[in-house]
Amino acid sequence: MDQLRKAKGFICDMDGVIYHGNQILPGVKEFVDWLYRENKEFLFLTNNSGKTPRELQQKLARMGLKVDEHHFYTSALATANFIARQKPGAHAFVIGEPGLFNALYEKGITLDDTDPDYVVIGESSSYNYDNICRAVHYVQNGARLIGTNYDLTGPTEQGIMPACRAFVKPIELVTGKEAYYIGKPNPLMMRTGLNMLGVHSNEAAIIGDRMDTDIVAGIECGLDTVLVLSGVSTRETVDSFPYRPRLILNGVGDIPGQA
After folding, report:
1. Which of the ends of the chain has fewer CB neighbours closer than 10 A, N or C?
2. Distance between CA atoms of 150 and 48, rounded to whole angstroms?
3. What class does CATH assign to 2-47+187-257?
4. In this structure, which topology does domain 76-181 adopt according to CATH?
């Protein structure tokens, strides 16, 4: 714990670490207060593509947490940056929420349901059979398939629900084409996060609730790794992976609470 508290930078997941749905998790306020009090560099790096950084800021504000907008980076922003670098002015067919549409628009990517260059899939409440069929058609006609993140499930107030990879999988199975996933554990998103923090990887820690995205991303990028049991993982599920986090905590409230 002493080693963790000495880190200069913290990359924190949100779903299952900071909140479930609209319910803040125990100890989060104390953790955020500690980050500010200790002058830590920190970034909320979320695979959820549905909300903009401002919406995330406002969501936390409703929960009683005041965090500046520049402390947020989403897989939607990472996806938009990737496509804009690969093919400036690209056209895309998108299944997702406003955060993803907004990020793509800000990077000059045109929404196109006729002949898109890319099919981009994020979390969406409007996911349906018609959208799947259209996505399949575009991919079969040569559009590249992009998933905003690799999460198969996500924690909510109602329990564990399907996430991005579950939405992409039917399109992969029908077309035989594998999607390229932008969010964690893709190093693209992790390197951007470290650059935003302005710290070296060996001076930073990643805190997450998922072994297959947060923890493996931290291990592969050289960060200190902290798994919290407030989301989808349990001590039993950890044993099914060939790698381990350095620390396993009940939640982020354990960090300042043991100081």
Report:
1. C
2. 10
3. alpha beta
4. Rossmann fold (3.40.50)
SS3 content of the chain, % helix, strand, coil (to 5): 40, 20, 40
Own/partner pairs for 161-167, CB < 8 Å, 24+ apart? 163/47, 163/123, 164/47, 164/49, 164/75, 164/121, 164/122, 164/123, 167/95, 167/121, 167/122, 167/123, 167/124, 167/127
Q: 201: Cβ–Cβ under 8 A, 6 or more apart, which residues?
A: 194, 221, 222, 223
* CA pseudo-torsion sign 232, 59, 43, 96: positive
Please report how many Cα atoms fall inside a 13 Å half-sphere around the Cα of residue 12, on the Cβ side.
Answer: 26
Same fold, 2-47+187-257 and 76-181: yes
* Residues 211/234, Cβ–Cβ less than 8 Å: no
Whether 15 is a known active-site residue: answer yes
Domain boundaries, the chain: 2-47+187-257, 76-181
Please state the length of the chain.
259
Q: Are 23 and 156 in contact (CB under 8 A)?
A: no
Question: In the annotation, is 68 catalytic?
Answer: no
Q: Each residue's pLDDT tens digit in the chain (259 positions)? A: 999 999 999 999 999 999 988 899 999 999 999 999 999 999 999 999 999 999 999 999 999 999 999 999 999 999 999 999 999 999 999 999 999 999 999 999 999 999 999 999 999 988 999 999 999 999 999 999 999 999 898 877 777 889 999 999 999 999 999 999 999 999 999 999 999 999 999 999 999 999 999 999 999 999 999 999 998 899 999 999 999 999 999 999 999 965 4
Among 15, 151, 212, 254, the active-site one is 15
pLDDT at site 27:
95
Q: What is the pLDDT of residue 118?
A: 98
